[in-house]
Protein: Cornifelin
Amino acid sequence: MTTAIVINQPKAGMMVGSVQGHRDWNSGLFGCCSDCKSLLLTYCCLPCAICTVASKVGECMCMPYFVPGGLLALRTRIRTLGGIKGSICMDSIALTCCPLCTLCQMQSELHAMGL
Structure:
């Protein structure tokens, strides 16, 4: 009979990537003019733009309207899926200061990610 000695404890849970992310957004927060389609959709039909973002990340189209903080959750999800640097605090500040530019940035990022 042999005895196994454990030197390193196994890690609990599974981390897919870094918590902090490894890259920046593809477009800046005020880079709205670089993606004319997102810009027009956001400024001409804001509800359509919000529903489009929600459905592209696998959520119900109406989620941002019925869940408090729904847009913040969507932005954080996009950032996490894309491995983008940032924090929930910075996501919240961006959405508070310039929600339309932030939504354009989210749409551009989803397009760049192939979604």
